[in-house]
Design a protein that fits this description.
With 216 residues, the protein is an alpha+beta fold. The chain folds into two domains: 129 residues, no CATH class; 52 residues, no CATH class. It contains six helices and six strands. A three-stranded antiparallel β-sheet has the order 2-1-3, with helices on one face. The chain has a three-stranded antiparallel β-sheet with strand order 5-4-6, with no helix packed on it.
Length: 216
Amino acid sequence: MKYYTYAYLREDGTPYYIGKGSGNRAYLQLNHMVKTPERERVLILKQNLTEEKANQHEVYMINVLGRKDIGTGILRNLTDGGEGVSGYKHTEETKKKMCRPKSEEAKGKIRNSIKAKWDNGEYDRETYRQRELGKKQSEETIRKKIEGVTNYYKKNKKVVTDEQRNQISETLKNKHKNGEIKSFYPIHTGTRWWNDGQKNKRMVECPGKGWKLGML
């Protein structure tokens, strides 16, 4: 009962690879012909499985999401799964297929599929939340998330009222206070704010000539 199944997610949250393994298999590049993403984009689907059950679930997920190389879906898997063979090597032709850009239609289908599963409770929100607690995210990942939300609101002309903004701020403060989302904040222990007259930067020591202590 040491096996599990996992998914690698793109930055937009859609899966591009389904696998099965044990130990740290999901987080290692070794023997993966697709690029292993950042840890926060590795999603463990099912745990504590026998190898047989893990193989069965891998086959099921690949069948549901489909493969890009044969035109049935969005995954970069090049087999239907369930082989249990580590170290599988792909041909150069197959590697080129894996690098083809994904279509907007395919991305839309998987987004709608995942949203539907969240909406009907097929994905357990509380389990997902608990799994995310304590994870550390890089400043780059946080920046991309903020940019994504900002661009969404600009594109869809969403207007956030002062009341909504204050409500969100209070909710985040409370969650941060009780430790629910502390991992979403970069650690700045021992750092201070500096500015060069145009922008701010947080560092332990002065970033360089022309920078002075304090925020704009």
